[in-house]
Design a protein that fits this description.
Layout lengths: L4 E2 L5 E4 L2 E7 L9 E4 L8 H11 L1 E8 L8 E16 L5 E11 L1
Parallel strand pairs: 3-5
Antiparallel strand pairs: 1-2, 2-3, 4-7, 5-6, 6-7
């Protein structure tokens, strides 16, 4: 089975000729199908990442290793591709959205 191909440091992975944003399962625990990433900050990667979620309406859900000492995540495995909707950044500086249909499982 074909799996996505990511690169260290990239917030995206290539699957079937397209770069899709990757999101961490950690931020769904206890609130599925909602997603609430509390790590939103002023890094420039957020702009293209949020735009891709909004425009493509899809994301690759991943499992991750625990955060390193600098607070960075490293992917462990790819779970699947889901549709996403209602992508927004809240007043509390959280990236939030809702998962919809499972489109492909890895």
């Amino acid at each position: 089975m074909k799996k996505p191909k990511g690169r260290a440091g990239s917030w995206f992975a290539e699957w079937d000729g397209e770069n899709l944003p990757c999101v961490h399962k950690f931020w769904t625990e206890g609130i599925w199908p909602e997603y609430a990433d509390k790590g939103f900050d002023d890094r420039p990667e957020w702009g293209p990442f949020i735009e891709a979620l909004q425009e493509k309406g899809r994301a690759i859900l991943t499992t991750s290793h625990p955060q390193d000492a600098d607070g960075n995540w490293r992917r462990k495995s790819y779970i699947g591709i889901w549709s996403v909707s209602d992508v927004r950044v809240t007043d509390n500086k959280e990236l939030r959205f809702t998962f919809g249909d499972l489109l492909h499982r890895f």
